[in-house]
Amino acid sequence: MFLKVLKHEFKNMTRDRMYAFFVFYEFLLIGVSMWLIPYLEETSGMLAVQLTFIVLILMSGIVFGAITGFTLLDDQDDGVLFSLKVTPINVNTYILLKLSMSYMFSVIATLILILLTGFHETLPLLDMIFILVLSSFQGPLIALIMNAFASNKVEGFVIMKLTGLTIIGPILSIFLTDWTELIIGIFPGFWTARIMSISMTSIEFPLRVSWVYFLLGLGVNVLSLYLMNRYFKTKRHI
Predict the structure, then answer these.
(1) Distance between CA 228 and CA 226 in Å, rounded?
(2) How far apart are CA 86 and CA 72, in angstroms?
(3) Are 170 and 58 in contact (CB under 8 A)?
(4) Which residues lie below 8 Å from residue 220, measured CB to CB, with a gap of 6+?
């Protein structure tokens, strides 16, 4: 079942130029980061590096979330989800597999980004695992948001662009270092950004250690996924 859905995903990516663009964009993102991060380290200081790296890490998940979101919209337009209701394949299982692939590809892309930029050399292994786990939730979450609020690919593109505003929260986390940081904890990406800040700076944050931020971030991300999934299925009568 997993291999069939994976094959279907790759077929969608190759038949539409827009999907090919998003895949190319991910490679472009990784390529630019290999040049940009060292350049900023030499010319602009750690704050610029931290800000840029947070955006790059979160964007990796958003790109694969967009791809999955558009393929799900295609499935709705083509009547695939409706057709699955009369087949042995469970619709919920099909959607879960597509979201899982979005998460998996986000993990791989983020890991490549961390390794190629050399960030892993100064990053504790446990913190790197925390970042990989949390940041990759952006993929399935963006896919669900697109399909919950858009009825076609044009609307989906607009929604996808608007979801970029969710990066504002993680960016603000760089400048909020006291208890007020918890106000922006509603942004799922905030918790990834905070763990990165702990690894990249010597600032002592209110919750002190990365594993506390990881556990809270895991709860926020899982809850966000659950609520968005419920809303999506209710709206689409799945």
Answers:
(1) 6
(2) 18
(3) yes
(4) 185, 186, 188, 191
Amino acid at 150: A
What's the whole-model pTM score? 0.86
**Statement: residue 228 has pLDDT above 80:** yes
The dihedral sign for the CA sequence 31, 36, 41, 46 = negative
Residue among 149, 141, 16, 160 nearest 74 (CA): 16
Q: What region, left, alpha or beta, does residue 150 occupy, with left being phi > 0 and alpha being psi -120 to 50 degrees?
A: beta
Instruction: Give the pLDDT confidence of 147-172 residue by residue, as tens digits.
Output: 889 888 888 888 888 887 788 888 88
Query: The dihedral of CA 56, 58, 61, 65: what is its sign?
Result: negative
Q: Considering only CA atoms, which of 203, 230, 207, 227 is closest in space to residue 217?
A: 207
- Kindly give, in sequence order, each residue whose CB lies less than 8 Å from that of residue 177, ignoring residues fewer than 6 positions away: 203, 205
What is the Cα–Cα distance from 209 to 205, expressed in whole angstroms?
Answer: 8
CA 197/CA 202 separation, integer angstroms: 9
- Looking at every residue in the chain, the average pLDDT score rounds to 83
Average pLDDT over residues 177-192: 86
How far, CA to CA in Å, does 232 sit from each of 93, 140, 159, 228, 235? 15, 12, 14, 6, 5
| Residue that wins the pLDDT comparison between 218 and 48 | 218
